[in-house]
Every structure is written in structure tokens, then in C-alpha cells.
Amino acid sequence: MADEKTLDLILREARSHAKFQDRPVDMALLRAAHELMKWGPTTANSQPARIFYLFSKEAREKLKPALSAVNLEKTMKAPLVAIVAYDTRFYEYLPRLYHNPDAINWYNKPGVAEINGFRNSSLQGAYLIIALRAVGLDCGAMSGFDNAKLDAAFFPDGRLKSNFLINIGYGTGDGIPPRNPRFAFEEQCRIL
Which CATH class is domain 4-171? Predict the structure, then answer.
């Protein structure tokens, strides 16, 4: 089992940050986080997530029209923003990634790839948040943006689709409200 300090770092004490220090994020930390997150399981090892790290001012300006009013300022000020997207044709890689080459035929049907790509990129995005925390970064994940606008700006050919955004950096801790309650095991789980 992971030690208490690690559990606190990645989940128990970690918080969603809206304000970050004016301090750049080192690319080496993103690579280290990727080396951790890539091992998280996905259906048929499909790995549909595609992560776009918006470092440049031009990329941030391209994102700006898609952001909701409540997320605009904090996202534009964050040291780094990641778009967690998914490849709608992820199944094309299954002959390379999965031990059963016929798996490509499980997903190349209308609607099947879409739901699986979205579901598994959500998992990979969660793995990424935990991995980013594990390497010492803070995150603020959000879905307050216009997916259609973002996709038109970044993925005009339609192959990739946005799932959610993550602001990344070193949180200041300012403005974080008290921890909200969580469901107890008995409220959220059933043994059948």
C-alpha cells in the first residue's frame, strides 16, 4: 500500500486550484507525469486520450473564445492549460496496442468508438491529474467551456474531440473554500 504521505499528496489533501504562482511548469515534469499516467488501464488498452499542453500565448488566445465567463480569467492566468481530448478513431491503433488484432472490429462502428473514446479519455484524464499531483504540480480540472468552439479551433478535421480542460501549475492556495463533504461508503456503494 502507498504510504500516508503519498495518499495525502495525490488524493486526500490535494485540492482543485484556481489560482497559481507565476512560475513556469517544466516540460520534464509533464513527461514524468505521462510516464506514470500511461500505465492506467483503458478498455482493450485503447489509450484514446490526446493531451494538448497550451504553453504559447497564441494557443491560449485560440482557447479564449471557448471559455465560459467563470473560467476565463483563471485559465488565462494559469501557467499551463491542458486540453484532454480523445481520438474518435483510436481503434486504428489497436492492432499495435492490444493482443487481439481483431479488436479493431469491436469499435469501428457508428457510436461505439465515440462512447468508448470519451469514457476512456475521461479515465486517462483522471490518471493524468493524479500523476501531475504525484510529480508536484497542482491542477484545476474543468468542463466550463464550449466544446464545439474549442473543437472548431483546435480540431477542425473532426477526428479529435475535446473532453475537459486542466489548469496546471503551482497553486497558491488562495481562495480555496473549505473541503466539501464526501459520501460515506454506505451512501455510495452497494454489495450485491
Answer: alpha beta
